[in-house]
Structure formats: structure tokens, C-alpha cells
Amino acid sequence: MLTTDVERELLVTSLQDVLSTMMRNDIVCCDSDGEKDLVTREHITATIGFAGGWNGFVSIACSTAAARLITGLLLGTGNADIPDDEIRDAVGEVVNMVGGRFKALFSAHQDSGKEVFKMSIPSVIQGREYNVFAPANSIMTKVIVKIRDEKLSALLALSRDNES
User: Fold this and answer.
1) Short-list 119, 121, 103, 131, CA closest to 45
2) Angle subtended by helix axes 64-75 and 84-110, to nearest 10
3) Residue ranges of domains in the chain
4) Residue 85: phi, psi to the nearest 5?
5) pTM of the model
6) What angle do CA 135, 137, 141 make, to 5 degrees?
7) pLDDT band with cut points at 50, 70 and 90 for residue 12
């Protein structure tokens, strides 16, 4: 049975596995991401959808400064002079890896021997004054992690497809 505690544990593990491995930096879970402040500033959100026996998405949101740091760590170049398109691609790739890791962990947790869902390609939004919402019947989990001095917010929404 899926609970928010299980969902949170799988999401945190997915974030730790991907971010620690790909960026060679430890991450720390936080209580707050300063979301109200983030919405009013330029920020980036990357989302990957899930469809199949379970439907939903995982999204990652962070300030452009955090996205620049993440890109520099992924590319091993530092965070100066990175073009915006490379930053968006990097954040999209991070959500793709986190979504893939979550899918593997979630599939093992379901122990059905079947693929639990298929994943879409990542979508990336950059701007101000926008929010991401999930269907009302979704189980929602939000995790905030800190990488160096920057924060990243991950939102997971899942609902079981009753027709599968």
C-alpha cells in the first residue's frame, strides 16, 4: 500500500542517489524552501509525467542560481557563463534521472513484476509567478533538499489508475 511516508522515502532516496552520484555533493533535507519567495523570483521547474497503472508526475523547482549551480556540478565546469538553454537541459535531465530512479524503486516496492508506469519526456518552464498543481485525487509529497547553499524542491504526485 502506498502512503505518503513510503512515497517520501522513495523520493528522498531517488534525489540522494541521483544528486549525490551525479554532482558528487551530499544533499540535506530541509523544512522550508522559501516557496513564496521563489514564486516571485525567476525560477525553473522541470517536470516528467507518469502514465500507466499509476499516473502523476515528479517535478523539480529551484531558483536560477540553484539551476546554474546544478548545471555546473553536472558538467564539471563551475557555474559561470553557462547559457540558459544548457541550464534548462540540465534541470530537465536531473528530473529525468530522479523520475527514472523513483520508477525503479517504486516498481520494486510494488513487487508486482510489472512496469508500474511509463515516463514522458521532461518539460521545463522558466519564469516568475507560476505554480505547478496536481489532480485533486493525487497523493502529494514535497521534499526540499539543500545542495551547498542552494535549495531544490521536488514535488511528487501519484494516483492509481483504476482501469489498470
Assistant:
1) 131
2) 80
3) 4-159
4) -65, -35
5) 0.88
6) 80
7) very high
Residue holding cell 524552501? 33
Name the residue with cell 513510503. 6
Alpha carbon distance 59, 122 (integer Å): 9
Q: Which of 57, 63, 89 is nearest to 146 (CA)?
A: 63
Q: Is 31 helix (H, G, I), strand (E, B) or coil?
A: coil
Q: Which CATH superfamily is domain 4-159 in?
A: CheC-like (3.40.1550.10)
**Residues 95, 46 contacting (CB under 8 angstroms):** yes
The answer to whether the beta carbons of residues 133 and 15 sit under 8 Å apart is no
pLDDT in tens, 75-102: 887 767 888 899 999 999 999 999 999 9
